[in-house]
Write a structure and sequence with these properties.
2 helices; single chain; mainly beta; Metal Binding Protein, Guanine Nucleotide Exchange Factor, Chain A; 3-stranded antiparallel β-sheet
Length: about 140
C-alpha cells in the first residue's frame, strides 16, 4: 500500500533538515542504542512530536517505565501513527511510523502484561521525537 503521507520531501531535503543520527532512524529505519536516548528517563508533563515534521504523536500521560531502554507509551494520539508489518532481522514485528511524514519511530509490542490500560508498548526512538513541556504548550 503506498504511503499517503502529508509531508513529502526528497532525500536531500531530509538530510539537510535532520542530524545524521536522526536521518538514520527516521528515514533509514535505524535504532538508537538502548538507554542512550534523551527521553528514556524524561518524566515531565508535555507532548512528544515527530522530530522530522512536528506532528503530535504521544502525550506524556501515556508514557511508562518499561525497562526496555527506549521511551515507551501505551497509546498514541489518535491518527498520529501508522502501523506496518516489519519482517526484518529474522522476526515479525509491527513498525510504527509518523502518519504525517512517514518517519520511522520504532515498534509496537502487545500482550507483554505491563499492566497499562491498553496492554501495548510503543517502543520509540528518542531520536525520532521532540518534547514540548506542558508549560510551553
Amino acid at each position: 500500500m503506498p504511503n499517503a503521507t502529508k509531508v513529502q520531501k526528497t532525500d536531500d531535503e531530509w538530510r539537510a533538515e535532520l542530524t545524521p543520527e536522526q536521518y538514520k532512524v527516521l528515514r533509514e529505519k535505524g535504532t538508537e542504542p538502548a538507554f542512550t536516548g534523551e527521553y528514556v528517563d524524561n518524566h515531565a508533563d508535555g507532548s512528544y512530536t515527530c522530530a522530522a515534521c512536528g506532528a503530535q504523536l504521544f502525550d506524556s500521560n501515556t508514557k511508562f517505565e518499561s525497562g526496555s531502554g527506549w521511551p515507551s507509551y501505551y497509546d498514541a494520539i489518535p491518527g498520529s501513527v501508522e502501523l506496518h508489518v516489519d519482517n526484518s532481522h529474522g522476526m515479525q514485528r509491527t513498525e510504527v511510523t509518523c502518519a504525517n511524514c512517514g518517519g520511522h519511530l520504532g515498534h509496537l509490542f502487545e500482550g507483554e502484561d505491563y499492566g497499562n490500560p491498553t496492554d501495548k508498548r510503543y517502543c520509540i526512538n528518542s531520536l525520532s521525537l521532540a518534547f514540548t513541556p506542558q508549560d510551553k504548550q
